[in-house]
Amino acid sequence: MSAWANKYRGATVEDLDPPSALSQHPSDSIANALLNAYERDYTHLTVISEDTRALLGYLSIPRLKQLVEEGVVSENDPVEKAMLRFRRKGNVYQVITMDTSLEELERFFDGGVNGSGAQDFAIVTDRSRRFVLGVATKADLIEFAKRRPA
Prior knowledge:
The chain is α+β, with helices and mostly antiparallel strands. Helix content is 29%, strand content 17%. The protein is built from five helices and six strands, in the order αβαββαβαββα. 25% of the residues are buried. The model has no long low-confidence stretch (mean pLDDT 85).
């Protein structure tokens, strides 16, 4: 995707106009999560604590659909049974904010944090990581670069 880098010309994540994050609680049903994602055409949903609103993890909707189809989880199960949890201890998280450059976002998607692996999406937060503002995907970045005049 680095061929697109010259098309960013100083643009930031804010220029992607990422949609607001849609958050679920661990106790919400998988059916509810699937319906919310379908209605908004989202591929990823964040999972937050019901008490503190702290970010706990996320749901990858394609993966969730696969788990339901394979019978690993049912639509009546709670989200916590299928969510991917963030590992807090010992991990370095790259903070992605509305001010993050698209070049930096591209590096994040291509190599992850410290080269830990490619990422499909980024959770956009405020600088202090207290509020989830949106979700940006690799597809959003590619579409932005395609729309940008040469």
